[in-house]
């Protein structure tokens, strides 16, 4: 069952189609190991270090092992106490780590049938969401530690997720376009006009009013999240837009690309404010510290830490032995998590 509409860039609301695209999956499909710790499933290396005085000099705190494939996505709980990591290839596993003692506190097996392409924790801390190559979005209740529901509707790999600051709206991006979901009622909400190119990355502005999407043609599009209307689109990079993120004040959009550059866009004027260069290959991921002053970017040549105001490269971190594929700042701004092709998750700390 599908809703049809005319025109591109429009939004098609389907308030009555609830279970056509939303199906519950039995618990045996997704196995949650509670909050036990098994050394065989994940090991933690404690890295002795002294706490730095600022994030200009982050130090490696923990190195987590246990995933069987590339780390594709990382997310912190709102209180910064838990880090979740998603694996690629055919692993489909999500692991949960305690950021204070470095212990693994949970594992979700078969979170996706293949790769976990993206995951997030809602700002209210109640829901863990993941998506993957199986065209499915899965939801877990973090308060009671159980699987709740799957969202089914995409017909291709789902590569990106974003959630509104009030935890009410979930947005997913894939080859077949962008879909919006009511996270509280757990039902489809709307579908943005279809695309003929892959949506690699999504971000929602701090005020919850704007959605930014980046695709494999280097195009960024800005959407009014309340109406679904396209505000504007522009060619930002000459290769895939791998990551987009809003600054905490909502005035700037930062984009990273496989063209090796990071760009800062003034949302008031629509103009390019800065271009950051320094990576020797693709920029796989970016993350902005909640302080609004620090940017981290990941690639083959490690993690680069930038001053967002000046554009100055502060430091490069070399904790991984292969490409760095995912990064995330903790909500308290004191930690940076990174994941790589080396199947490791690293936790960096600053005070």
Q: Describe it for me?
A:
With 351 residues, the protein is mostly beta strands. Helices cover 0% and strands 51% of the residues. The protein contains no helices and 32 strands. The strands form seven sheets. The protein has a five-stranded antiparallel beta sheet, with no helix packed on it. A hairpin with a 5-residue loop joins strand 24 and strand 25. The chain is globular, with a radius of gyration of 19 Å. The termini are far apart. The N terminus is likely disordered.
Distance between the first and last residues' Cα = 52 Å
- Spatial extent as radius of gyration: 19 Å
Tally the helices.
0
Low-confidence stretches: 1-32, 34-42, 46-53
Topology:
Elements: E1 11-13, E2 22-23, E3 31-32, E4 43-46, E5 59-65, E6 71-76, E7 82-87, E8 94-98, E9 104-109, E10 116-121, E11 127-132, E12 136-141, E13 146-152, E14 158-163, E15 169-174, E16 177-182, E17 187-192, E18 199-204, E19 210-215, E20 219-224, E21 230-235, E22 241-246, E23 252-257, E24 261-266, E25 272-277, E26 283-288, E27 294-299, E28 302-307, E29 313-317, E30 324-329, E31 335-340, E32 345-349
Antiparallel strand pairs: 1-17, 2-13, 3-9, 4-5, 5-32, 6-7, 7-8, 8-9, 10-11, 11-12, 12-13, 14-15, 15-16, 16-17, 18-19, 19-20, 20-21, 22-23, 23-24, 24-25, 26-27, 27-28, 28-29, 30-31, 31-32
């Amino acid at each position: 069952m599908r809703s049809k509409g005319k025109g591109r860039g429009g939004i098609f609301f389907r308030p009555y189609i609830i279970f056509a695209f939303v199906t519950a999956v039995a618990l045996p499909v997704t196995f949650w190991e509670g909050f036990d710790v098994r050394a065989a499933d994940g090991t933690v290396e404690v890295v002795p270090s002294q706490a730095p005085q600022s994030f200009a000099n982050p130090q490696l705190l923990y190195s987590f092992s246990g995933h069987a494939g590339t780390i594709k996505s990382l997310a912190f709980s709102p209180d910064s106490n838990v880090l979740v990591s998603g694996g690629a290839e055919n692993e489909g596993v999500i692991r949960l780590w305690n950021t204070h003692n470095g212990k693994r506190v949970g594992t979700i097996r078969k979170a996706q049938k293949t790769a976990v392409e993206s995951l997030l924790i809602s700002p209210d801390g109640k829901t863990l969401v993941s998506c993957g190559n199986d065209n499915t979005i899965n939801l877990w209740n973090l308060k009671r530690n159980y699987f709740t529901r799957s969202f089914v509707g995409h017909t291709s790999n789902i590569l990106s997720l974003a959630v509104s600051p009030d935890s009410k709206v979930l947005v997913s991006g894939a080859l077949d376009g962008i879909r919006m979901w009511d996270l509280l009622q757990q039902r489809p909400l709307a579908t943005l006009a279809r695309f003929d190119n892959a949506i690699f990355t999504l971000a929602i502005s701090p005020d919850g009013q704007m959605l930014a999407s980046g695709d494999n043609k280097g195009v960024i599009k800005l959407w009014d999240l309340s109406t679904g209307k396209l505000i504007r689109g522009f060619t930002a990079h000459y290769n895939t837009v791998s990551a987009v993120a809003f600054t905490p004040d909502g005035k700037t959009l930062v984009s990273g690309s496989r063209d090796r550059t990071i760009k800062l866009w003034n949302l008031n004027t629509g103009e390019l404010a800065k271009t950051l260069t320094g990576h020797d290959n693709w920029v796989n991921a970016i993350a902005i510290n909640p302080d609004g002053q620090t940017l981290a970017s990941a690639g083959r040549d490690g993690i680069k830490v930038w001053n967002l105001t000046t554009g100055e490269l502060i430091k490069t971190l070399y904790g991984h032995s292969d490409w760095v594929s995912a990064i995330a700042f903790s909500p308290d701004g004191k930690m940076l998590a990174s994941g790589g092709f080396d199947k490791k998750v690293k936790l960096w700390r600053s005070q």
